Amino acid sequence: MASLKTLKGRISSVKSTQKITKAMKMVAAAKLRRAQQAAEAGRPYAQRLSGVMESLASRITVGPESPKLLAGTGASQTHLFVVCTSDRGLAGAFNSNIVRAARRRADELMRQGKTVHFYLVGRKGRAVIGRLFPRQIVHQHETGHIKQVSFGDAQAIANDLIARFNGGNYDIAHLFYARFQSALVQEPTDQQIIPVPMATSTGAPAGGVTAAVEYEPDEEEILATLLPRNIAVQIFRALLENAASEQGSRMTAMDNATRNAGDMINRLTIQYNRTRQAAITTELVEIISGAEAL
Amino acid sequence: MPLHFELVTPERLVRSEDVHMVVVPGSEGDFGVLEGHAPFMSTIRNGELAIYRSGMTGEPERITIEGGFAEVNDRGLTVLAERANTPI
């Protein structure tokens, strides 16, 4: 039986933990609103752009001299996984879900004899991936100093990626992040970004683009500016979705933690009171029997 | 005759409205887009976008944009800019 003093100590320690989790929940809720707005505001651009990409890609015949970012290298031997995680923990299963998705895919590909390399964005993926796939991390991009993700950040990552691709080291790139659905649901997503996934011809192209489109300056040049931008936009979108997912996940996790702490305080308080009563009863019995013995 | 016009940046959807005409700073020269323009795609240079809301009269709204491209299709004009400087 724990003594009164240790019980009291435990109650106050759980209480202070509860205060922290409650504060973290509030902060996450406030940040979530902004991150969610940013994520939703970023969606139209990504959608429009991929629409344009698809309609362009469907009209251009892929030849040996078409850009690598569009057509790929023709091989699928070396894969580069861009795994986006957060920099902070205490967000429930947010980071581990993303890492698990990447890991499962990596295992699958490696069983087929492919080579997988990791390009990490954010701090939290490093521990697990570094342990499971040592020497396969090619780069870690620090995002610790970023408060609000800007397009420039995504562009920096994209430029680095494209440079690596043009170096001819990789065939296919995947992007891993958690797509934000709601504060309760964040879906780990595996998206192929290089080469551009070809629109699987689902009937007529959107909007019925049958008329000849005029290009200025010309198709190739537009494609040359569009392809790198598309990569940057997809990464930017992933970062925004990730930011919203992280806050949502943290809010849910901290809400649970606060509730658990409350339950624990109740349990401990009951135990404390029982112990106290027991002690009083024992003391009384001692006094009474002492008095009777006299 | 309204033209459906959308201006989008990676950060947000800046404008989505029906207007009369938009003059876009294309990389090979400015071009104006009216309702019923032929399908067209162009990269854009840094410059000012002029939005004429009601006819050619009246002062157009000017938005400074940087980088990106414009697409015209049968649904209207979409300008995908890297940056757009607007109040709001």
How would you describe this structure to a colleague?
The complex is a heterodimer of chains A (294) and B (88). Chain A has 294 residues and is an alpha/beta fold. Chain A folds into two domains: 4-21 and 256-293, no CATH class; 35-253, Pyruvate Kinase, Chain: A, domain 1, CATH 3.40.1380.10. Helix content of chain A is 60%, strand content 14%. Chain A is built from six helices and six strands. Chain A has helices at residues 4-59, 68-71, 94-111, 126-132, 151-166, 219-293, and strands at 78-84, 115-121, 137-141, 172-180, 186-194, 214-216. A five-stranded mixed sheet of chain A has the order 3-2-1-4-5, with helices on both faces. The longest helix of chain A has 75 residues, at 219-293. Chain A is elongated. The two termini of chain A are 32 Å apart. Residues 201-210 of chain A have low confidence and may be disordered. In chain B, a hairpin with a 2-residue loop joins strand 3 and strand 4. Helix content of chain B is 0%, strand content 65%. The mean pLDDT of chain B is 86. Chain B has strands at 3-8, 13-19, 21-26, 29-33, 40-43, 47-52, 61-73, 76-85. In chain B, strands 1, 2, 3, 4, 5, 6, 7 and 8 form an eight-stranded mixed sheet that branches. With 88 residues, chain B is mainly beta. Classes of the chains: A alpha/beta (294), B mainly beta (88). The A-B interface holds A 38, 41-42, 44-46, 48-49, 52, 56, 150-151, 154, 207-209, 211-217, 221-222, 225-226, 229, 232-233, 236 and B 6, 8-13, 26-28, 38-43, 68-69, 71, 73-75, 78, 80, 82-83. Strand 6 (214-216) of chain A pairs parallel with strand 5 (40-43) of chain B.
